[in-house]
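Case study.
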Amino acid sequence: MKTNSYLLSILVDDEPGVLSRIAGLFSGRGFNIDSLSVASTVEPDVSRITMVTKCEPHIIEQIKKQLHKLINVITVNDLTDKKYVQRELALIKINARPEKKADILRIVDIFRCKIVDVGLSHYTIEVSGDSEKHDAIISLLNPMGIIEIASTGSIALARENGKK
Amino acid sequence: MKLTGGQILIKMIKAEGVDTIFGYPGGAVIDIYDALVKQNGLNHILVRHEQGAVHAADAYARANKSVGVALVTSGPGATNTVTGIASAHSDSIPLVVFTGQVPTALIGNDAFQEVDIVGITRPCTKHNYLIKNVDKLASTIKEAFHLARSGRPGPVLIDLPKDIMQAQIDFTEPKEISLKSYKPNYKPNKKQLNKVVDLIRRAKSPVIFAGGGVILSRASDQITRLAKMADIPVTASLMGLGAFPGSHPLWLGMLGMHGTYRANMSIGHCDLMIAAGVRFDDRVTGNIEKFAPEAKIVQIDIDPTSIHKNIEVQCPIVGDCKAALEGIIQLMEDKDTNDYKNDRKVWLDRIEEWKSTTPLRYEQDNVVIKPQFVIEKLYELTKGEAIITTEVGQNQMWAAQYYHFDKPNHFITSGGLGVMGFGLPAAIGAKAACPDKLVVDIAGDGSIQMNIQELMTAIESKIDVKIVILNNQYLGMVRQWQELFYDKVYSSTNMENAPDFVKLAEAYGAKGLRCTRPDEVESTLSEGLETEGTVVMEFAVDREESVYPMVPAGGAITEMLLV
Ligand SMILES: Cc1ncc(C[n+]2csc(CCOP(=O)(O)OP(=O)(O)O)c2C)c(N)n1
Ligand SMILES: [Mg+2]
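After joint prediction, the assembly is written out as follows.
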């Protein structure tokens, strides 16, 4: 069956073991986590987990219900079909041979990225944006020789008012 | 009032209305045991293995409709509870398990008898806690009991570092529990209930399918009333036995792999299934595609994850079984019609025919005892009123088939996990909860050896239980599969090398009886049941008797192997 990508924003109690409960739920039931990001929120004792998971449509309902069943999970918001802003941050270290430098700088400029580190033979580029932007810039930079990438995974917030 | 952590623990358990706990001491919980003997009102039963403590607490909870409590030490004491906890988790039984832990300062240092029991039991508890601050102790215990018994019940574990049990604080009563992330939805949606009434009115061949959830939500009365109002026959899962009277004409018998012919056929041909408190385990459904292919399915469950998990249902109702069934009955009574029976005779006649052509059957000759005969006699002699616990395997299935339960909370078995060794400690727990009831463990010769040490617990604590061993000298259920599906290659299932169960009983101080002849079954049972104290009755039964009907794993439940 066809799998889709789903973006979940999950508020949880900020307690030791919560991430392990969530990770354990996914591994124990054979669900996958594509990316995961965890950080605190303005409310004390509450953290936000933003997760991308790929699965068949009928499985996502189980995933959401199972997540909700965990005692430390406060809300599960499926942003997939909602309006949301989403960002990922990536650091891309790339070969900067003299003949390619101009091309790289042009791409960085077009995508409004930043060069955050320069070496004799490399640049490190900071990219922030949604996952499409990341895919696009990576496909352009790839032929020039990407050395390493570090990326955060998605974070997202729903656009509608309210803090959920 | 200044109290130690250990004293607070005992006080909080008592405040939850628990009168008996099951446990085993060790270094990490020595302070708790010290507090335990210096108080009044909380009875402690010293088991002989921590697994026994948890099974006993499980059965105590089921027989008593309350929460079971087990108390064990750190490390091996804690790991020994895991099977019991996993069983209670599968069967949604409310337990609170207290494990000792090394002092807070040593946690994470691979200290003596340190294990991460919170990590180990995360996937098999409803929730669990490590207490790091004595100020949180009382409120966490209160929360644990609340979680264990509310919503879909389940086991909760609290890990108690030794220093926290020793620490002294000024005790204050914890506040009422309010969890922002946990609010089970008891109240069913009225629109859905109306839909059910409509479905019932239109159904020609409806069936009610009751599960353990009906017993947990104490909805047996409602199931029975609904069935009678609309002449709907009732079947149940293993966990649901007793939810509807086993002697009622609308009773179909158990459903599933070893269900009755008529129950399985009824599901195969019904046009409406009202499933309450069930989770559609594969042992019940067989091949999903061929499960109730003609039926609209109503599913009532307190746990939203149970719905659409294994099968698609047309009318899901999230809520308490009792509230939902009561709601449906009210709506039916309020309607201007009272005809919900809809020419039910045709459907009931069809079922009657399945019943009369293909009943549960076995033939008792006068040479070798049939295990089914022992259970039938036990049923007659106890007038169906005993609390029955079981081990796992053929003995469990024959108990389910041949002992007819008229009341809930009388059949106590490890359903979801199928733990051999459950029955004896469970019998002790049930008897501790209901001292006035007769409690019988229906056992296999293999299973009984898995927790046989609990005989000593029964004797020491003067908890009288009766154990009926159906001795086929085989791990019978596995042998049955080998016979049917592995060309009779009986690999590692022969149990001929067994102890002398009569002597074994006597060694523990129990009475032992052995029966080898069909004509002595009744007298042996009578003698065993009438003898005071704990009695082991061993029946040498037909070695290669099998449980029928049987649906081969993954087959359609209407395609049964018959005798
Ligand atoms: C702890 C555990 N180990 C293994 C099994 C697998 N198993 C299921 S039934 C069975 C045979 C049980 O034999 P016995 O207690 O003699 O019962 P019988 O089937 O002969 O009545 C086994 C080994 C189990 N259910 N539980
Ligand atoms: Mg056996």
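Observations recorded in class. The first strand of chain B starts at residue 2 and ends at 4. The pocket of thiamine diphosphate (ligand 1) is lined by residues B 391-395, 418-420, 444-447, 470, 472, 474-478 (CB under 6 Å). We will return to this complex in the next lecture.
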